[in-house]
């Protein structure tokens, strides 16, 4: 994973607990930091002598020429609290090139309706997707269902209203607040009853082509289930988690991990490293322990930074919320979740 040192161009308060950070990308790096709507960047810095890496989705549009992310301070959020209280304009962070598979690619010749369900900071990649559709697909429409506690807790609240007024015929917003009764907003959460009501009433005459979901695992799971009940093909439901799944947090793995050992070869940036590892370790843990420069960020199975291909041998994953059945069949694994199951294995980070 290649990192580049970038200066913070602007840092602005969005809510009491969230900031947007814009980076100054020099002309020599513009190509490397071109991105697709929905992608993220990995930020790396040192806090109190400890290296910290975190992924944040880009909220600016590809055509804007800006590289901006939103960071919401969360409980026990080491970097997110630092970003909200300490970072300032001119500070330098190491930034990896854009990554991620939760993407929208515009096509000006298309006429379609895209709908998104977002909760809390899950709005960040959705914001980039919304702007991209509105800017680059003049005949397409965008529907946003966005859940928060109150308007003051809503990231991009004013900007979204401004976009709605600018594109009033093409951009529909349904705000949902769980702790505030507001005019033109629903009260509650994005849950089965809410989604059913919206699809059967508010948007019953809309033919929605594609759905994008971003937020906590529970919201995504429920929304997917309701959409499938409405006959939506899973191929048209795209999602991205914004928190580590419950199973990963509790360390209760449904997949049995062996206590044997494996002779492993890891290929990164055309360099090969061979050693023997415990099958109780994940492949990524073993690589980091050997000081191999393997790409990684969240280490919780919710980003795609650590994907690699198993070209010999096999591995089992304790958690998978990203890879499709076809990708698994092709040998791709999330190395932060993958444990070897054969005496020898070859893992290639370059072949993805």
Question: Can you walk me through this structure?
Answer:
This protein has eight helices and 19 strands. With 352 residues, it is α/β, with parallel strands linked by helices. The strands form four sheets. Strands 4-3-6-1-2-5 form a six-stranded antiparallel beta sheet, with helices on one face. Strands 10-9-8-7-11-12 form a six-stranded parallel beta sheet, with helices on both faces. Strands 14-13-19-15-17 form a five-stranded mixed beta sheet. Helix 5 links the parallel strand 11 and strand 12. The chain is globular and about 60 Å long. The two termini are 13 Å apart. About 2% of the residues have low confidence. It comes from Formosa algae. This is Ring-1,2-phenylacetyl-CoA epoxidase subunit PaaE. Its cofactor is FAD. GO terms for molecular function: 2 iron, 2 sulfur cluster binding; flavin adenine dinucleotide binding; metal ion binding; oxidoreductase activity. Keywords: 2Fe-2S, FAD, Flavoprotein, Iron, Iron-sulfur, Metal-binding, Oxidoreductase.
- What is the β-strand count? 19
Q: Describe the global form.
A: globular
Number of helices in the DSSP assignment: 8
| SSE pattern, N- to C-terminal | EEEEEHEEHEHEEHEHEHEEHEEHEEE
Amino-to-carboxy terminus distance: 13 Å
Strand content: 25-35%
Q: Mean of residue pLDDT?
A: 92
Strand order of the largest sheet: 4-3-6-1-2-5
Quaternary class: single chain
Uncertain spans, ≥5 residues at pLDDT below 50?
A: 247-253
Q: Give the proportion of residues in helices.
A: 10-25%
- Rg is 21 Å
**Helix/strand class:** alpha/beta
Largest sheet: 6 strands, antiparallel
């Amino acid at each position: 994973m290649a990192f580049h040192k970038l200066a913070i161009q602007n840092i602005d308060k969005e809510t009491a607990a969230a900031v947007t950070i814009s980076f100054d990308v020099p002309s020599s790096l513009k190509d490397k930091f071109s991105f697709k709507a929905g992608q993220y960047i990995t930020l790396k810095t040192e806090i109190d002598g400890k290296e910290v890496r975190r992924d944040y989705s880009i909220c600016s549009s590809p055509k804007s020429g800006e590289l901006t992310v939103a960071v919401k301070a969360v409980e026990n959020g080491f970097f997110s609290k630092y970003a909200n209280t300490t970072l300032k304009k001119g500070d330098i962070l190491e930034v990896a090139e854009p990554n991620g598979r939760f993407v929208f690619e515009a096509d000006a010749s298309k006429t379609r309706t895209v709908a998104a369900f977002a909760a809390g900071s899950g709005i960040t990649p959705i914001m980039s997707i919304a702007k991209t559709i509105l800017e680059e697909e003049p005949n397409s429409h965008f529907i946003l269902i966005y859940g928060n506690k109150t308007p003051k807790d809503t990231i991009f609240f004013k900007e979204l209203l401004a976009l709605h007024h600018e594109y009033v015929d093409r951009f529909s917003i349904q705000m949902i607040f769980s702790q505030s009764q507001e005019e033109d907003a629903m009260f509650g959460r994005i849950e089965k009853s809410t989604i059913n009501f919206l699809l059967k009433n508010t948007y019953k005459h809309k033919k929605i082509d594609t759905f994008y979901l971003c937020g906590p695992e529970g919201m995504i799971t429920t929304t997917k289930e309701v959409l499938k009940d409405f006959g939506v093909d899973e191929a048209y439901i795209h999602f991205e988690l914004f928190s580590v799944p419950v199973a990963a947090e509790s360390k209760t793995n449904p997949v049995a991990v062996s206590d044997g050992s494996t002779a492993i070869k890891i290929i990164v940036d055309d360099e090969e490293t061979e050693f023997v590892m415990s099958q109780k370790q994940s492949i990524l843990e073993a690589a980091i322990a050997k000081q191999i420069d393997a790409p990684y960020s969240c280490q919780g199975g919710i980003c795609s930074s650590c994907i690699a291909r198993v070209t010999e041998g096999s591995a089992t994953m304790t958690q998978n919320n990203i890879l499709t059945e076809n990708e698994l069949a092709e040998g791709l694994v999330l190395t932060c979740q993958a444990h070897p199951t054969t005496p020898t294995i070859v893992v290639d980070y370059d072949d993805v």
